[in-house]
Amino acid sequence: MDLRYGEKYEAFRAEVRAFLEGWPLQGDEAKLPEQEQQALFRRRGIERGFVYRHVPVEYGGSGGEPDVILDQILQEEYAGSGAPGNLLTQGAAMLAPTLLEMGTEAQKQRFVPKALTGEEIWCQGYSEPGAGSDLASLSSRAELVGDEWVIHGHKIWTSGAEKSDWMFGLFRTEPDAAKHAGISYLLIDMKSPGIDVRPLREMTGGALFNEVFFDGVRTPAENVVGQRGQGWQVSRATLKHERNMIGNPNQTRHMFEELVALARKGDGNAGPGLSDPHVRQRLAELEGYLLSQEYTAKRILSATARGELEDVMLPMMMMKLHGTNLRRGLSDAGFDWIGADGLRELLDEEQVPYAAGTPGAWTARMMSAIAIAIAGGASNIQRNIIGERGLGLPRDLRAPKG
Amino acid sequence: MDFGLSEEQRLLQDTLRNFAGQECPLPRLRELFEAGQGHDPELWKGLVEIGVGGLALPEAHGGSGLEVLDLALVAEVLGEAALPVPFLGHALAGLAIAWGGSEAQQAEWLPKLATGDVTATVALLEGSSAWQPEEWALAPGASLRGEKRYVPDAARADLLVVGTQGGGFALVETGDPGVSWTAEEGLDRTRGIAHLHLDGAKAEALPGAGAAARVRDAALAILAADAFGAAWRLLRMTIEYAGTREQFGTPLAQFQGVKHQIANAATSLEPARGLWWYAAHAVDQLPDRAPHASAHAKAHLTDRAIGAARDAVELHGGIGYTWESDVQIWFKRVLFDRTFLGGPEVHRERAAQISGW
């Protein structure tokens, strides 16, 4: 075991730090709109090799050699800086890697650069009212008519659909094929006629999710990713990226530090404060889970760098469930410690998302921690995966074949 | 950057697993457990031949020159196997002498510890089960007078490292006429404990002042690793049981309620492996981090391990609660790891203090 990064990597870290010292921007540049500042960051970062490092130059990245340790150093340095960092949109984090892995040359050139910069915003169209965890049973259909797919159906839980330019989604294209085999992965312009986006208001008062209705929506035949009927395999690649996002410990470390700050305040509404032995015990126990998540991320990173992923298959399967449990523990404590402020309703849409450090943020997190247990593979599905694929337990009674 | 084990470390664990499987199969372990001796001289001899006696001791004094992480990796396998050997006390006593002993003390004792000619243990606790050197009453001096409780593996020991007032260490040979024992009925029958009486026993202080805290941190990482190994053993037993035991005409593990309980227990335990890896590594390489890391490792691992152990008993059904079932062997091993040198609350409070909360 050697936790030092070594000379080559520390030199890289020093370069990244020097680059990040220019952020947030100063002088006239600081007056630019946020989006332009982000665009500036990306342009300069790509030139230096620090942004979308592993994405080839022709698709809008820095074109660096694959090296997970360099990626890790960038993440670590972005996390503590005032710089925008890599965009973590669905387009950048899920669509772009999927296209890079399985898209055609034309798709990569057309879609990846704009997804990375955020010039085009993407949403994900997987779930349907009748197909949540059991995605293979989805029924929205697309029929090839001439050189266009004609789409009818209904998607749900589509976050950001109202402001998206494009959707990547799963549609049944081979009605006679078996459940998994008849699905295709399509790219759809959200401004197409026949698309109707309706917001779904959540219990937090916010409306992150939408329903999307398709009534004869058309998209060109070449907007299928992978082979026709292979959408299931393509979506597996995307889901892998989504779960990695949810299991990311950087966000939970930040939330933990906010929780310590909340306890430290210890005023009337913020709970009894850090001097209370119960508060100290609760924080320390949560820190045990947080450290578990952080060290597991390091184990996975090291095994990835060594090319020995089989060593960490089991902890990788566990990251989402473990992270979900931790988020619940953190948000429960925050909600408890805001005290009577937790009695207040959160239906002011103007405030969503609630600013970090406000009582409303903890109330909203307390509820959104449940959403994390559902999104990207519900916790009970994770338990089945861990039990069956990780621990070798037999499949459920009457589980479907295939 | 590599947060993982080396080939040599994996090989060490494989060697120990093979040894434990061959030399202490379940029927033999059960016999030893029933006898309640807390040790098996033949097993210990075999482990010393593999090099366990001097694993983390300096090569200049006959040891293998490895690290506390390697000791913790041994502890993981011993926990898995519930091996009744005096490893814990022997390893900690060796570290105390290596870190706090004079050159002459090291030269005299460490080679004998490495070869197993001398087996050592630590006598630390007094009133409380926690490591509280500030409350140790035993006054240092050329001869010691007083009591120590819960001395691990005492029956086998030739040499004692005794904790004295304020956190010092002194060496006492068990053959001294001033040393006597009262055996205690230990809950964990794979590791004995005894009550030590010192009545003018000849003692020699270890001059190194900072050794106590470092030995404590090593001890916490080793106990956490043992608990981790024991808890995984219980989970594996449970996975096997639930996969074969039928109810309502189908294996138990086909019921989601059972499968999910096992998945939850495993998910609570496995991601915590890095806590004891890191804590043990920190004792050697990152001394500033070791107190915080080892406190968390001990608290979190033994808490998660007892959770997994409870699930294991429950999922075995009534049979898992019987004396006849082997589940109790590991359940009690975990209880020892949890209690010895202080339970989770004690160490969480220490972690909180170190964090400046």
Mind explaining what this structure looks like?
The complex is a heterodimer of chains A (402) and B (357). By secondary structure, chain A is of the alpha+beta class. Chain A has 11 helices and 8 strands. In chain A, the strands form 2 sheets. In chain A, strands 1-4-5-8 form a 4-stranded mixed β-sheet. A 4-stranded antiparallel β-sheet of chain A has the order 2-3-7-6, with no helix packed on it. In chain A, strand 6 and strand 7 form a beta hairpin. Chain A starts with 6 loop residues before the first helix and ends in a 12-residue tail after the last helix. The relative contact order of chain A is 0.08. Helices cover 53% and strands 13% of the residues of chain B. Chain B has 12 helices and 9 strands. In chain B, helix 8 runs antiparallel to helix 10 (290-315). Classes of the chains: A alpha+beta (402), B alpha+beta (357). Chains A and B meet through helix 7, helix 8, helix 9 and helix 11 of A and helix 7, strand 9, helix 8, helix 9 and helix 10 of B.
Total beta strands of chain B: 9
How much beta of chain B, percentage-wise?
Answer: 5-15%
Number of helices of chain A: 11
Ends distance of chain B: 30 Å
Largest interface: A-B, 58 and 48 residues
Biggest beta sheet attributes of chain A: 4 strands, mixed
Count of DSSP-assigned helices of chain B: 12
Q: Which ranges of chain B are low-confidence, i.e. pLDDT below 50, for 5 or more consecutive residues?
A: none
Helix content of chain B: 40-55%
| SSE succession of chain B | HHHHHHEEEEEEEHEEHHHHH
Structural class of chain B: alpha+beta
Rounded mean pLDDT of chain B is 95
Provide the descriptors you would attach to this structure in a database record:
heterodimer, A: 402 residues, alpha+beta, four-stranded antiparallel β-sheet, 13% strand, globular, B: 357 residues, four-stranded mixed β-sheet
